[in-house]
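Record minuted for completeness.

…
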Amino acid sequence: MKVAKSIQKPGQTKEQTKLVAQGIEKGIAEYKKQQKAKARDRDKQRKQELKAKAAAAADTVVDEPSSKANNALLPWLLLGLSWSGFAGYYFLA
């Protein structure tokens, strides 16, 4: 009502001022609805991005055990090569 009275024109009736105040209130309510909808959309987008990052992180975690299995094979491979090298040196020398 304060805003409506501040923009009131000379000769404007009280009813007209009330209608202006109602229009302003309706506009403010509409603006708030729009802002809430935008905030919800931003929140949904943020959650989707977080899910995508979590899924990517989960994929990398799943890949790590297979690389660890390869790392566990390496010492045995080196042991076998060293023993075959010792045996070759012993029998050929």
